[in-house]
Write a structure and sequence with these properties.
The structure holds three protein chains of three kinds.
Chain A (H helix, E strand, L loop, with lengths): L23 H4 L31 E6 L16 H7 L4 E3 L5 E3 L2 E6 L5 E6 L12 H12 L8 H4 L2 E6 L4 E6 L5 H9 L24 E7 L3 E6 L13 E6 L3 H9 L5 E5 L4 H4 L3 E5 L6 E6 L9 H9 L3 H7 L22 H5 L4 H11 L4 E7 L3 H16 L3 E7 L1 H10 L4 E6 L29 H12 L3 H18 L2 E6 L3 E5 L2 E2 L2 E2 L5 E2 L4 E2 L1
Parallel strand pairs in A: 1-10, 1-11, 14-15, 14-16
Antiparallel strand pairs in A: 2-3, 4-5, 5-7, 6-7, 8-9, 9-10, 11-18, 12-18, 13-16, 13-17, 19-22, 20-21
Helix pairs in contact in A: 8-11, 14-15
Chain B lengths: L1 H8 L1 H10 L1 H23 L30 H37 L1 H16 L2 H12 L3 H27 L3 H8 L4 H37 L11 H8 L8 H28 L13
Chain C lengths: L1 H28 L4 H6 L5 H11 L5 H13 L13 H36 L4 H15 L2 H15 L16 H35 L2 H8 L4 H29 L3 H7 L4 H10 L3 H29 L7
Helix pairs in contact in C: 1-13, 5-6, 5-8, 5-10, 5-13, 6-8, 7-8, 7-11, 8-10, 8-11, 9-10, 10-13, 11-12, 12-13
Classes of the chains: A alpha+beta, B mainly alpha, C mainly alpha.
C-alpha cells in the first residue's frame, strides 16, 4: 500500500477539479444520504413540511410514462431507470458537480502512477441476506468486460485490466494504462453491485439481485411494480417509506392527468413542456443536465448528410434559444456538442462561434452542392422531438432545405437508427460522466460499432479520442477535450441542441425525493408528510 | 324488397325524395360549405396552417380567430384546412372498403362453394383482428401518410360490405331476372356487375355513408395512438391528440377540432339516415368501423 | 343442432390457423424486434446477437413459427420476450379485469340502448323523438378517447370523485373499488356502442310495431305499455342480440383505446404494450385469444338467436 496515497492525504498535484478521497468519517452519518442532489422542493422555497423531521412509513405511488423491461442494471435503458437506484447500490454516487460520495465503496484510493486502485467495500448484505463481498464486484467486472453481456457497463469497465480480492471486502484493480482519476470515479459511479449468483441477464429478467434501499415485492409486467423497504439497508432508519409503487402509463398525458387527479403521488420523467401547468401546486424536481442531451443526428453515410457542408449548414440553422423557449417551456440549457454545461468538456464559446445564423447556414448549404432535401424520422409518441423538428423544418425551409417528417412508432425509429437506414433523427444522449471520455459511450460517438459511421469514422475524430483516452493529467485531459470538441463541431454529425432536464413532479405531501446525475430516481430519503 | 328493386331502376325519384328531406339536405350543404371553405383556405393561405408565430397558446382573438397552438400556429387555419384530411379519409376509406368488400361479397355469394367459404373465413378473420394491429402494420411498413390511414380503415370496413353484398346476392341469385340474364348467355362477371350489383346497391350505399362517418372518428382514434396523418399537415385527430397535453394551458385548443369532427360526423350520419329512408334498407347497415 | 355446432366449430380451425399465420406475417413485417427493444440502441451488434439467440430469434422465421405453433397446439403459448413471464399467465392475469370491464360496459349498453331505442321508435316525429335522435347521433360522432379524456377532466380532476388511473378490483370481493375503477372506462366504451344498438332496436321496433300481432294485441284491448313491452320490445330485441353479442366479442378481446386512456390493466393495454415492444409471442397469444373468443361468441349468438326465435331452425 506504500505506493498508494493514503486517504487522509491531500490530493495529488494536478488533480484540480475534484479531490480524490471522500472521507468515510465525514460521511459517517451523511453517507446514507447517498445521493443528496436535487432534493424535492428544490425549486419551491419553504413548502409545507420541508423543515420537519422525516416521518417513517406509508406507501407512495408514482407513475412513469413507459413500462419497465428489465431488472438488469447493466442494461442502461431509460425505461428501467426507476428500478436502478431503488433495487441496487452502486460503488459511489455523484452530486450534480460530480463530487463523489460513498455508496457501497466505503473508501477508495488511486495509486500515484494511476495504474492501480483499491476499493474497500461497506460491510452490508444483499436483499437475501448474503454479504456483499469483493467476489461480487469481481464477478460483476468480468460480466461487464464480456463483449456479449457487458451492455452499458462495457465502456466504463474497459479501463480495468484485472480485478482481484484483497480480503472479503477489498477489491484491487489494475488498469490497462495510466488512467485519469475521473475515469476511475466514472467506473465506480456507473457500477451497480449485483449479487454474483444472480448476475446474469436471463436471471435478472424476472428478479433483482441488489442491496439497494428497496426490495422487489411484486411485478405485474406492463402495469406496475411494488417495492418494500429493505430492512437490512446499510443506512440506519432509511428508507422512510414502507412501500413504493411504480405504475406504468402509456402516455405522459394520462400520467399528468392521474397526477392532477391525485391517483398517483408523483410522476417521473415528464417532458419539460408540462412545467407551466405543474409548477404551482406541485413539487417539481428538474432532471440533471447530463442525463439527457437532445442531439440532431445526421447519417453521415447517406445523402445528403454524407456532405459535411450540408451537415454544418443544418447545425447553423438550429435555433437553440427558440427550441428551449417553445419546446422546453424555458427549461434546459443550450449545448453545441453532447457535453452538458456542468461537464469538464463543455465549451460555452462554441455556442457563440457557431450561433444560429440562417445566412451563414444558407451560404454553407449553397456552397455544399448537396441535395437540399431529407427525411427526419421521429417517434410519434415523442411529442417534444416532433415539435423540435417542426421548428427546425421551418427554419431549414428558409434556407431552401426541405425537411420532411416521418412519424412512426418508437421501435421502428430505434430499429432504423440501428441499421443506419434513416437520414436524420432527434435522439437524446446520456452524458452523466465526470470524465470527458464519457462522450464516447454513445452509439453515435463510440469508436467501435459506431451506429452512424460504421467503420468510416473521421480519422481526426479517432485520433482526438485516442488522445483523450491516453490523457491522465488534468492538463492533458483539458487539451484533449478541446480537440475532441473541435472535431465534433467540424464534422457536425450529431449536433447538440439542449439539455432535456426531464421533470419529476410530486404532490406537496411528498418530500425528500432526489435523482442522481444520470436521472435515476432515488427514493431512499423520500417521505410523506 | 321488390319495390326497391324498381326504385333502383328509376334513380331520379330517389334523388328527388332524398332532397325533400330537409335535414339530409342541410347536412349535404354544411359538408359542401366546409369542403369549399377548406379548399379556399388552402388556396388563399396555403402556409397559414403550418406557419409558427412565436405567440404560443393564445386564446381566440382578432388576429387568430380560434387562438394558437403550442407552436404558435393559427388554429382556425389548421381547423379549416384539416377538414380536407377528414373528408379524404372518410370517403376514400369507405370507397376502398366498399370496392374490396363488395367484390368479395359478389364473388362469394354468386360463385359460392369453396370461394364462398374461403372469402367468408377471411372476412371473419378481418372482423376479429384488432384494428390497431392492422393500422400499425400498414402505417409502419408503408410509411405514415393519409393514404395509409385510408388503407388501414378500409381493411376494417371490408367485412361488413362483403356480408351485405353476399346477403343481397344470395337473395337475388335465383330470381327470374337473374336467371333470364343467364339464359340469354351472359357471363358470370357480366351478371354480377350489370344485373346483380345495381339491385343490391341500396343497403351498400347506406353502409358507405355509415363507414364514411365512422372513418372520421376512427382516423381520430388512430391519431390518438400515434398512427394518424403525419405532421405538419393539420388533421382534427392530431389536433385533438396534441391538445391533450395542454388541457390546462390552453383549454380552447381541443374544443374546436372536437366540435368540427362531431359536426362532420353528424352531417354524414344524417345523410346516411336520409338515404336509408329513401332506399328503404333496414337498419342492418349500422355496424360501423371502430378502432379497438 | 349438434351437426350445426360441429360444423361451426369446424370453421374455427381454419380461421384460427389463418389468424396465426397472418398475425405472424404482420408482426415480422414490422421493423424492429424484441431484442432491440430489450437491448436498447446503445447495445452493440454482438450483444444484440446474444439477446436474439437467448430469445430464439436467430432461427429462421418459419422454424420459429412452427415451433410456436407446435407448442400452441399443446396449450403452451410461449414466454414474453420482454418480461420473461409466460404468455398464458400474462393473459390470465389481465383477463378478469377485461371480463369485468366488458360486463360493466354491456350493462351500460343495455341500460342506455333499450330505453333510447324504444323512445326513438315510439316517439317518432315528436320533439322527444328528435331530441333522442340527436343524442344518438352525438354518441356516434365523438371519438371514444375524447369521451374518456372529458370524463377524466370532469370526474377525476374537477370533481375528484373517480380515479384517473383505473385500478381493477374484483366486483364480488370489493364492489366499491371495482365500480370506482370501472365505471368511467365502462361508460366510455358503452356510449358509442349503446347509440349503435339503440338505433338497431329503434328500427326493428318500428318494423315490429307495424306487424299484425301488435294490431291484434291492441285490438284485444291490451294496454299500450303492455303491448309495447310484452309484444313489441320482445320481438324487437331479437336482432339487437346479435349486435350486442358482436360488441361483447370485441370487448372481451380487449379495448385498447379506452384501456390506454384510463390506464386500465386489461388485455387491450397488454396488447398495446406488446405491439410497442414487438413482444412477438405475447402479441400472437393475445390476438389468438381475442379471435377465439370472438368466434365462440358468434356461435353462442347464433344458438341464442335460434332459441329466442323459434321460427329459425338451424340445421
Amino acid at each position: 500500500m506504500s505506493d498508494m496515497r493514503s486517504r487522509a492525504g491531500s490530493p495529488a498535484p494536478g488533480l484540480d477539479r475534484r479531490t480524490l478521497l471522500r472521507g468515510l468519517a465525514a460521511a459517517g452519518g451523511l453517507a446514507a444520504l447517498g445521493p443528496i442532489l436535487a432534493a424535492c422542493g428544490g425549486d419551491d422555497s419553504g413548502d409545507g413540511g420541508g423543515g420537519g423531521a422525516p416521518s417513517r412509513g406509508g406507501k407512495l405511488t408514482v407513475g412513469i410514462g413507459t413500462p419497465l423491461t428489465d431488472f438488469d442494471p447493466y442494461n442502461h435503458l431509460a425505461v428501467n431507470f426507476p428500478m436502478m437506484a431503488t433495487l441496487y447500490s452502486y460503488l459511489i454516487t455523484y452530486d450534480d458537480q460530480y463530487k463523489p460520495t460513498p455508496d457501497l465503496a466505503a473508501e477508495w484510493s488511486l495509486a500515484a502512477d494511476n495504474l492501480s486502485a483499491t476499493i474497500k467495500l461497506r460491510d452490508t448484505v444483499f436483499h437475501d441476506g448474503s454479504p456483499v463481498t469483493a467476489q461480487d464486484v469481481i464477478a460483476g467486472i468480468k460480466r461487464a468486460q464480456d463483449p456479449k453481456t457487458g451492455i452499458s457497463q462495457a465502456a466504463t469497465s474497459s479501463i480495468i485490466k484485472e480485478a482481484t480480492a484483497g480480503d472479503d471486502t477489498t477489491v484491487k484493480l489494475t488498469f490497462v494504462k495510466p488512467t485519469a482519476e475521473a475515469r476511475f470515479l466514472d467506473f465506480m459511479y456507473w457500477f451497480p453491485v449485483v449479487q454474483a449468483s444472480r448476475n446474469d441477464a436471463a436471471k435478472l429478467k424476472q428478479e433483482a439481485g441488489g442491496s439497494g434501499p428497496f426490495t422487489l415485492s411484486s411485478y405485474a409486467p406492463g402495469d406496475r411494480m411494488l417495492f418494500k423497504r429493505n430492512e437490512k439497508y446499510y443506512a440506519q432508519g432509511r428508507p422512510y417509506l414502507d412501500e413504493l409503487e411504480i405504475r406504468f402509463f402509456d402516455s405522459q398525458d394520462s400520467l399528468v392527468s392521474a397526477l392532477r387527479a391525485g391517483s398517483v403521488g408523483g410522476a417521473l420523467a415528464l417532458d419539460a413542456r408540462y412545467i407551466s401547468q405543474l409548477q404551482s401546486g406541485f413539487n417539481v424536481v428538474k432532471g440533471a443536465p447530463g442525463a439527457l442531451i437532445n442531439l440532431f443526428r445526421m447519417n453521415p453515410l447517406k445523402a445528403p448528410f454524407d456532405n459535411k457542408l450540408v451537415r454544418q449548414a443544418v447545425a447553423r440553422a438550429i435555433d437553440r434559444d427558440r427550441l428551449i423557449k417553445e419546446v422546453q417551456n424555458g427549461v434546459g440549457a443550450p449545448v453545441y456538442t453532447s457535453y452538458p454545461p456542468n461537464a469538464l468538456g463543455f465549451d460555452a464559446s462554441l455556442l457563440d462561434t457557431f450561433a444560429f445564423d440562417l445566412d451563414a447556414a444558407k451560404q454553407l448549404l449553397d456552397s455544399s452542392g448537396g441535395q437540399k432535401a431529407a427525411v427526419a424520422t421521429v417517434a410519434s409518441a415523442d411529442k417534444a422531438s416532433v415539435s423540435a423538428l417542426l421548428i427546425i423544418q421551418e427554419d431549414l425551409k428558409k434556407i431552401g432545405f426541405d425537411l420532411q417528417l416521418e412519424t412512426v412508432d418508437t421501435a421502428t425509429v430505434n430499429s432504423r437508427y440501428l441499421e443506419g437506414s434513416l437520414q436524420c433523427v432527434v435522439r437524446a444522449s446520456s452524458n452523466a460522466y465526470s470524465s470527458p471520455m464519457g462522450v464516447a459511450q454513445d452509439s453515435a460517438f463510440r469508436l467501435a460499432n459506431n451506429v452512424l459511421w460504421k467503420d468510416e469514422l473521421p480519422p481526426a475524430y479517432v485520433a482526438a479520442v485516442a488522445q483523450l483516452d491516453k490523457a491522465a493529467s488534468s492538463a492533458e485531459v483539458d487539451a484533449a477535450t478541446k480537440a475532441v470538441s473541435a472535431v465534433l463541431t467540424d464534422e457536425s454529425w450529431a449536433v447538440g441542441m439542449y439539455t432535456v432536464n426531464a421533470l419529476s413532479v410530486f404532490d406537496k405531501s411528498v418530500q425528500g425525493f432526489a435523482r442522481n446525475p444520470a436521472d435515476h430516481p432515488v427514493f431512499t430519503d423520500a417521505y410523506l408528510t | 324488397m321488390s319495390d326497391f328493386v324498381e326504385e333502383e331502376t328509376r334513380p331520379v325519384p330517389v334523388v328527388r325524395r332524398f332532397l325533400r328531406d330537409r335535414g339530409a339536405l342541410a347536412s349535404v350543404v354544411v359538408l359542401l360549405l366546409l369542403l369549399v371553405g377548406s379548399l379556399l383556405a388552402s388556396w388563399l393561405v396555403p402556409d397559414k396552417a403550418t406557419q409558427t408565430s412565436g405567440s404560443l397558446h393564445r386564446p381566440p382573438s382578432a388576429g387568430h380567430l380560434l387562438g394558437t397552438d403550442e407552436l404558435g400556429r393559427d388554429l382556425a387555419a389548421r381547423l379549416l384546412i384539416g377538414a380536407q384530411a377528414s373528408v379524404v379519409v372518410a370517403f376514400a376509406s369507405a370507397l376502398l372498403g366498399m370496392a374490396i368488400g363488395v367484390a368479395a361479397g359478389l364473388v362469394g355469394g354468386y360463385v359460392g362453394r369453396w370461394w364462398d367459404s374461403v372469402l367468408m373465413r377471411v372476412m371473419d378473420l378481418l372482423l376479429a383482428l384488432p384494428m390497431v394491429l392492422v393500422a400499425l402494420v400498414v402505417v409502419v411498413v408503408l410509411g405514415p401518410s393519409t393514404l395509409n390511414v385510408v388503407i388501414a380503415i378500409a381493411v376494417a370496413a371490408v367485412p361488413t360490405f362483403a356480408r351485405l353484398a353476399r346477403a343481397g346476392v344470395l337473395e337475388l341469385r335465383d330470381r327470374q331476372f337473374v336467371l333470364a340474364a343467364k339464359a340469354m348467355g351472359a357471363g358470370s362477371v357480366d351478371i354480377m356487375t350489370r344485373t346483380v350489383l345495381p339491385n343490391i346497391m341500396g343497403p351498400i350505399i347506406v353502409q358507405f355513408v355509415v363507414v364514411a362517418a365512422s372513418a372520421v372518428v376512427a382516423a381520430a382514434s388512430l391519431s390518438f395512438l400515434g398512427l394518424g396523418v403525419p405532421p405538419p399537415a393539420p388533421s382534427w385527430g392530431s389536433m385533438l391528440q396534441q391538445s391533450q397535453s395542454y388541457l390546462f394551458d390552453n383549454a380552447w385548443y381541443g374544443v374546436f377540432p372536437g366540435l368540427a369532427l362531431a359536426l362532420t360526423v353528424l352531417c354524414l350520419d344524417r345523410i346516411g339516415v336520409g338515404l336509408q329512408r329513401v332506399l328503404g334498407s333496414s337498419g342492418a347497415a349500422d355496424i360501423a368501423v371502430e378502432v379497438r | 343442432m349438434t351437426s350445426y355446432l360441429l360444423r361451426r366449430l369446424g370453421q374455427f380451425v381454419p380461421v384460427l390457423l389463418l389468424a396465426t399465420v397472418v398475425v405472424w406475417a404482420m408482426i415480422y413485417a414490422l421493423p424492429g424486434n424484441p431484442a432491440q427493444v430489450v437491448g436498447g440502441t446503445d447495445a452493440t451488434p454482438e450483444q444484440l446477437a446474444e439477446i436474439s439467440s437467448r430469445m430464439g430469434l436467430d432461427q429462421p422465421i418459419w422454424q420459429q413459427f412452427l415451433t410456436w405453433l407446435g407448442n400452441a397446439v399443446r396449450g403452451d403459448l410461449g414466454t414474453s420476450f420482454v418480461s420473461g413471464h409466460t404468455v398464458t399467465s400474462l393473459i390470465l392475469d389481465r383477463l378478469p379485469a377485461t371480463v369485468q370491464l366488458s360486463v360493466l360496459a354491456m350493462i351500460g349498453i343495455i341500460v342506455l340502448a333499450v330505453p333510447l331505442g324504444m323512445v326513438s321508435a315510439l316517439a317518432q316525429g315528436t320533439r322527444l323523438g328528435r331530441a333522442v335522435n340527436v343524442v344518438l347521433a352525438a354518441g356516434l360522432s365523438i371519438p371514444t378517447f375524447w369521451f374518456g379524456i372529458l370524463f377524466i377532466l370532469v370526474f377525476s380532476i374537477y370533481l375528484g370523485v373517480l380515479p384517473a388511473a383505473s385500478d381493477y378490483a374484483p366486483l364480488w370481493s370489493d364492489p366499491g373499488a371495482a365500480l370506482r375503477g370501472g365505471v368511467l372506462p365502462a361508460l366510455a366504451l358503452a356510449l358509442p356502442a349503446a347509440t349503435v344498438t339503440a338505433r338497431f332496436i329503434a328500427s326493428s321496433m318500428t318494423e315490429v310495431m307495424e306487424r299484425d300481432f301488435i294490431r291484434t294485441a291492441r285490438a284485444k284491448g291490451a294496454g299500450e305499455w303492455r303491448t309495447v313491452v310484452r309484444h313489441g320490445l320482445r320481438n324487437a330485441l331479437l336482432p339487437a342480440v346479435t349486435m350486442a353479442g358482436l360488441q361483447l366479442g370485441h370487448l372481451l378481446g380487449g379495448a385498447i383505446v379506452v384501456e390506454v386512456v384510463f390506464t386500465y390493466p386489461g388485455l387491450g393495454r397488454l396488447l398495446f404494450a406488446a405491439l410497442s415492444a414487438r413482444d412477438y409471442a405475447l402479441i400472437q397469444g393475445v390476438i389468438l385469444f381475442a379471435v377465439a373468443i370472438f368466434l365462440v361468441l358468434n356461435v353462442v349468438i347464433d344458438l341464442l338467436y335460434a332459441y329466442l326465435d323459434p321460427r329459425i331452425r338451424i340445421g
